[in-house]
Amino acid sequence: MIPETINGKKVTKKEAKFLAKLEIDDTFNGPIQNPMSGDSAVLNGLQEAIYSFIMGAQMMPWWDAFPPAQGWSKAQLEVITDFSTGLDMFRKYWASEYMTLLD
Prior knowledge:
The protein has 103 residues and is of the alpha+beta class. Helices cover 46% and strands 14% of the residues. The chain has one domain. It has a two-stranded antiparallel sheet with strand order 1-2. A two-stranded antiparallel ribbon has the order 3-4. A hairpin with a 2-residue loop joins strand 1 (5-6) and strand 2 (9-10). The longest helix has 20 residues, at 74-93. The model has no long low-confidence stretch (mean pLDDT 95).
């Protein structure tokens, strides 16, 4: 279920559209470790789904490539847009967790 608010802030249509694409485990509540710093934060299922998308997007073989001559495909542009939305959501709703895991 897509929340209407998170931490007292209204979820935008763009954010709701992004969240609808994710598999959210409402029972998840556990630590996630930053692979670079070793620091960790406890995330709920919603946070973990967004975090996993962000980290997974960066594993795409084309992620670090310059835009191809013919431009990005529609699917690639969608991943890039969703990646940005996920990062923006972490900054907006969970600044501390963002700083620990994604900054």
